[in-house]
Amino acid sequence: MSLYPCDIEYSCFFMKNYNLFTVEEFMQDSYFRQWALNELMPEDVFWGNWVNSNPDKLPIIEEAKSLVIALKIKNSLQFSEDEINEGMNKILIDTSPKTYKLAPLTSNNWIKIAASIALILGFTWLIGSKYIQNSVLFSPLASYQKQVSYINNGTQPIKFQLSDGSKITLEPKSQLLYGNEFGKNKREVYLTGEAFFDVAKDTQHPFLIYTAELVTKVVGTSFRIKAYENDKDISVSVQTGKVTVYSQNTNRRNNPSFSTEMVLAPNQKAVFEKEEKMLAKTIVDVPLELQKLPDNTSFQFEETNVNEIFSRLELVYGVKITYDKNSFRKYSVTADLKNESLFKKLDLICEIVQAHYEIVDGEIMIYEKSN
């Protein structure tokens, strides 16, 4: 079965000279319409690659895509006309210094209105979703006249480098969008899906990553963001450096306030629960060894005091471990833990000394078990 829906054969699409297409011709192209409506198979990466290779065609692609989606919405949207008019009036008021009053929707003006809103939003494929109130509308990217996007519709991660030297690994079913002014006076991108960032250091121009609910701010570091639309939470996991994470209040577009802010260190992770609107700090699933142990020390223990073991773990993994030194001074451990993960090491140690641990605000708290 072909990945490319064509009445003759999939190669016919590549015979078309899409570089010469007008907005109307794109709208009439069945292959383009399927891509615009996200109906192609994930393995079909043709349009994502074509857009990346032809950034000068992005304005035409955006307009054509907006119109295709608008027609789809016209036929399937489950909102009433009053709700649609109210929502559109709010968008136009929020995005213009003037106040507009829309006439009732008709078949003649629907497409023009939908296309205009699509261009205002910039991130056109979000239009058909009811979660638009938490979308890029509240990001500064919406004000850019031109955007550049990387789309990964394949099954393998793709890697690329931005103009400032930052390196991105974009996971499948993900998209990164940024304005054409990126790297000049500011560094701002919008992410849907998942990506690993290795950000080039620039203290004068912080790097901002917007998702639907969070803003991540860095100067120069490496970290992973997972923000898929259908997931229950958004996570930011830090590998090196420090990262500041904000939970943004999207009720005010022009002057967004941040309800929560936290700073993450290496091996720490922020998790934002979408339903509860809560941002919590924890530890990454698989903490990395950040430093080497001093000479003549290792994770092979022979009647080693447990306080010394906790100190080594804290040093190597860079995670604060809190415990009662007086209470644990009486315990010693004999074990070979050099090939175990941090949490496996903790599990084994706590089993030996009859203790238990919890992760609280990105730190490890160890307690003696009550008799």
Give a brief rundown of this model.
This protein has 371 residues and is an alpha+beta fold. Helix content is 27%, strand content 29%.
Low-confidence runs (pLDDT<50, min 5 residues)?
1-14, 91-111, 117-138, 250-259
Strand content: 25-35%
Helical fraction: 25-40%
Radius of gyration: 26 Å
Label the structural class.
Answer: alpha+beta
What is the helix/strand order? HHHHHHHEEEEEEEEEEEEEEHEHEHEE
How many individual domains? 3
CATH topology of the largest domain: Jelly Rolls
CATH class type of the largest domain: Mainly Beta
Largest sheet: 13 strands, mixed
Structure write-up:
The protein has helices at residues 11-15, 23-28, 30-36, 46-53, 58-76, 81-94, 110-121, 306-317, 325-328, 342-353; strands spanning 147-152, 158-161, 167-170, 174-179, 187-198, 207-210, 214-218, 222-227, 233-240, 243-249, 257-264, 268-273, 278-283, 300-305, 321-322, 332-336, 355-360, 363-368. By secondary structure, the chain is an alpha+beta fold. The N and C termini lie far apart (65 Å). β4 and β5 (187-198) form a beta hairpin. The model is unreliable at 1-14, 91-111, 117-138 and 250-259 (pLDDT under 50). It folds into three domains: 11-128, no CATH class; 142-283, Jelly Rolls (Sandwich), CATH 2.60.120.1440; 300-368, Phage tail protein beta-alpha-beta fold (3-Layer(bab) Sandwich).
